[in-house]
Amino acid sequence: MKPRPKTSHLRISAPAKVNLYLHVTGKRPDGYHLLESLVAFTDVCDTVEVATADTLSLTLKGPYAVGLQAEEENIVLKAARKLATWAGIEPHVHITLHKEIPLGAGLGGGSADAAAVLKLLTQLWQLNISQDTFMAIALELGADVPVMLTGKAAFVSGIGEHVEPVIQPFRLPAVLVNPGVFLSTPAVFKQGVARFSPPMPTPEPIAQVLAQRHNDLETAAITLQPVLREVLEILAMQPGCVFSRMSGSGATCFAVFDNEAQAGDAAKAIATTRKNWWVKETGIY
Ligand code: C5P
């Protein structure tokens, strides 16, 4: 008999990520792409709550709950079922997800939520799970989930399974912009990358160094959603911008600034002229 859980309700923040750079270095025979990326976190967060219940269920709240379905396919429910199967128990839990991270945005929202559920349920169900097993379950849920589990900026390679945390702490002043268009990750990868990038050493997480890197999915994403070219140009022309880039498979783009005041001014300027765009000033860490 497993001991009865001591806690019945837990809550955690699930921060959005950006890919400070994302190089596609090849393609595996199964169609997945080999990547090299520096994944870092932002101040934009979903919140995930779990509570013991008689069945498995999900309530969606917040500005981006619309467009998501509390159904079988929801990654949050998949995460709960997968962990319960591993533990040999029934996934009897009620999950509440407050969605603040835009969907289909390259910000890893779904992956962040799945990682949060894995962490919370491990605690709620008092599971003794090795780090390797935890990471393997995460990878089955999505290529971005392992790095989300670590919750720390990391160099990610393979298809997402190799996660090497950055040792030196950093905080880059930045602005995130999403023009309100949705990009599906498989669609962007399917659109293709003209030329694979050569493997490169991991750089220092310093704005001027990262400016020399790129996102190999930008061209494909711009082909599917041409407004992204305008987003990147507007970010690049803001005073103090060190570089502007797309995150993940889009559609969110970001710019890193010399200082917080310039990031703040840029966020205000863009939000004023582009009222329909989602604009957030943030630290990237
Ligand atoms: O793993 P995730 O659900 O994020 O991936 C969504 C899709 O993106 C995959 O089905 C695949 O088409 C593509 N992908 C890829 N190479 C990666 C990650 C994702 O081709 N490393």
Overview of the structural elements:
There is one protein chain. The protein is an alpha+beta fold and 285 residues long. The protein is 31% helix and 29% strand. A hairpin with a 5-residue loop joins strand 1 (9-27) and strand 2 (33-52). Helix 1 (75-87) packs parallel to helix 2 (109-124). The radius of gyration is 19 Å and the shape is globular. The chain starts with 8 loop residues before the first strand and ends with a strand. The model has no long low-confidence stretch (mean pLDDT 95). Bound molecules: cytidine-5'-monophosphate. The site of cytidine-5'-monophosphate has 11 residues, from strand 2 and helix 5.
Secondary structure layout:
Elements: E1 9-27, E2 33-52, E3 57-61, H1 75-87, E4 93-98, H2 109-124, H3 131-141, H4 145-150, E5 154-158, E6 162-165, E7 172-178, H5 185-191, H6 207-210, H7 218-224, H8 227-236, E8 241-246, E9 253-257, H9 260-273, E10 278-284
Parallel strand pairs: 3-4
Antiparallel strand pairs: 1-2, 2-4, 2-5, 5-6, 7-9, 7-10, 8-9
Bound molecules: cytidine-5'-monophosphate.
Task: Please summarize what this structure is.
With 285 residues, the chain is α+β, with helices and mostly antiparallel strands. It has helices spanning 75-87, 109-124, 131-141, 145-150, 185-191, 207-210, 218-224, 227-236, 260-273, and strands at 9-27, 33-52, 57-61, 93-98, 154-158, 162-165, 172-178, 241-246, 253-257, 278-284.
